[in-house]
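[step 3/7] inverse_fold.run input=structure_tokens len=237
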């Protein structure tokens, strides 16, 4: 079973979102788990039976006076069971740091929403990748009471660029994350890969056993490409 997580980011008008949703209802995803993360305003339209719903973010506080934010309770009332936390675009463009991300993770655990925690190194940090990942994990998770968690390894330099790390690098990084979480947090978690996943590279990526799923941006916006990716993953074990 693989996780296929579609991060629609800040795309689609309401009409486009509605027609995407209609096409989504015709997709067959039986062996794997499909999770769709639309923009907040469209969450209530995405109520299909063949996928779960995730949010792209949550507010760092529970409820109340926080203009322009959306709370985890509000998102749960719209049907989410998953939340992307700490995406690199939020780290870069909204100045989210590991301390803020930690608050959001704690809320997810409190409310039994499964966090999809994004970690990954920038191009400049490539040489010290494991050090960067370790710091991101520890600042965010240290001393929290962990529940179910999905970790998304998304190298920042791979997002939207068409470049992916060499497959043996993805393999060893995911292996390292799994071992690190087991040894330091006594937890076996699913670790997924994100960054320029598409219908052309999904078959070869899927030969990497360590990958428990994919966080897909651009390619998931095109419903026929998403269909193709799902079909390719359906025929695999
Ligand atoms: P792309 O698939 O467009 O590279 O985006 C990856 C991503 O950021 C998913 O969260």
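[step 3/7] decode complete -> sequence:
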């Amino acid at each position: 079973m693989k996780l296929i997580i579609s991060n629609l980011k800040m795309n689609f008008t309401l009409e486009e979102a509605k027609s995407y949703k209609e096409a989504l209802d015709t997709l067959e995803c039986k062996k794997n788990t499909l999770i769709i993360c639309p923009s907040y305003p469209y969450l209530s339209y995405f109520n299909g039976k063949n996928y779960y719903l995730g949010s792209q973010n949550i507010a760092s506080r529970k409820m109340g006076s926080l203009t322009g934010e959306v709370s985890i309770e509000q998102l749960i009332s719209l049907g989410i069971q998953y939340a992307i936390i700490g995406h690199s675009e939020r780290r870069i463009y909204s100045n989210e740091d590991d301390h803020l991300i930690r608050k959001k993770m704690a809320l997810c655990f409190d409310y039994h929403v499964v966090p999809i925690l994004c970690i990954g190194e920038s191009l400049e940090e490539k040489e010290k990748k494991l050090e960067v990942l370790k710091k991101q994990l520890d600042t965010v998770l240290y001393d929290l009471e962990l529940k179910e968690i999905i970790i998304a390894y998304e190298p920042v330099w791979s997002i939207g660029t068409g470049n992916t790390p060499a497959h043996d690098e993805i393999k060893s990084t995911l292996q390292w994350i799994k071992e690190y979480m087991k040894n330091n947090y006594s937890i076996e978690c699913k670790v997924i890969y994100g960054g320029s996943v598409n219908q052309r590279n999904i078959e070869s990526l899927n030969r990497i056993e360590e990958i428990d799923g994919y966080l897909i941006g651009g390619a998931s916006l095109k419903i026929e490409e998403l269909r193709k990716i799902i079909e390719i993953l359906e025929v695999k074990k």
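[step 4/7] annotate
The mean pLDDT is 96.
The radius of gyration is 17 Å.
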